[in-house]
Amino acid sequence: PLYFEPRSHWSYSNTGYLILGRVIEKVSGQPIGSFFRSHIFTPLALTHTAYEPAPNGMMAKGYTSFGLSDPIDAVPEAKGWAGAAGAIWSTPSDLLTWDLSLLNHTLISPASFAVLATPQRLTDGRSSGYGCGQSINDRGSAVTLSHGGAVSGFVAQNTIIPSIKSALVVLSNSDFSPVGELNQQLLAKLLP
Question: Can you give the pTM of this predicted structure?
């Protein structure tokens, strides 16, 4: 059963991204990794970005910790587990290229960007604080678009500040790192 009537509340769920990935595969006739590569990674020259890459010596190793124990090697999720919800590996420079492509409307139109950057309204009129794939936060001096992510051994936070055409990417290869807190402190220094 549903937790609540659709659009009456908002709750983040990776399942939505998994479903969207399957829809893209059905409509395009391509596996999601191939679609990402041909429609996003290659056109933007994201040469250090891949979908479910095979482990290699160029990739960072992830770490985890239990309780107050020393960090240990993180065991990656099984292939296919994260899917369209988080199986993309990238670098800060490639993520910044992606962010700028959104701001410059390189891959999507201004109208599509407006949909992405507009919080959805709930049935009672309240803002969900979430657009199509981005948290939207009005900080008074600027609106920010952001999304975080985590898989075994890694955490990330990506924030775009459209009004100053800037972005902030914070990545860590330890899944216990306080990237959200670090992101907020750095963001405060960037905001007008």
Answer: 0.91
